[in-house]
């Protein structure tokens, strides 16, 4: 699915309808949503590995939460 803007992409993450292809588009087209993709339960290991390589503090915090079993998402998109 092509998302017209970050809000539409965030909505797909929030209602858990994003596919793996959607997740890849979201991290490319909307870098500000990378922390949400890092917290998304259905993000695959390959994409998680790519996100680790970014060394983004917000993404890293979500990835740490996943490892601890506490990934809930970074909050609403503003």
Oligomer: single chain
Principal-axis shape equals: globular
Query: What's the average pLDDT?
Result: 91
Structural class: mainly alpha
Gyration radius, in Å? 11 Å
Range of helix content: 55-70%
What about the largest sheet? Answer: none
Q: Number of DSSP helices?
A: 5
State the end-to-end distance: 22 Å
Strand content: under 5%
What is the H/E string?
Answer: HHHHH
Tally of strands: 0
Question: Which stretches are low in confidence, meaning pLDDT under 50 for 5 or more residues running?
Answer: none
Summarize the structure.
58% of the residues lie in helices and 0% in strands. The protein has 78 residues and is mostly helical.
Outline the structure in words.
The protein is built from five helices and no strands. The protein starts with 5 loop residues before the first helix and ends in a 10-residue tail after the last helix. It is globular, with a radius of gyration of 11 Å. With 78 residues, the chain is mostly helical.
Helices and strands, with pairings:
Blueprint: H1 6-14, H2 20-29, H3 34-39, H4 45-52, H5 57-68
């Amino acid at each position: 699915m092509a998302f017209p803007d970050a809000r539409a992409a965030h909505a797909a993450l929030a209602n858990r309808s994003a596919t793996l292809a959607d997740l890849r588009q979201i991290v490319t087209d909307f870098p500000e949503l990378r922390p949400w993709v890092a917290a998304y339960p259905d993000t695959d290991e390959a994409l998680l590995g790519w996100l680790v390589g970014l060394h983004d503090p917000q993404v890293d915090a979500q990835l740490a939460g996943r490892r601890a079993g506490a990934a809930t998402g970074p909050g609403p998109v503003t």
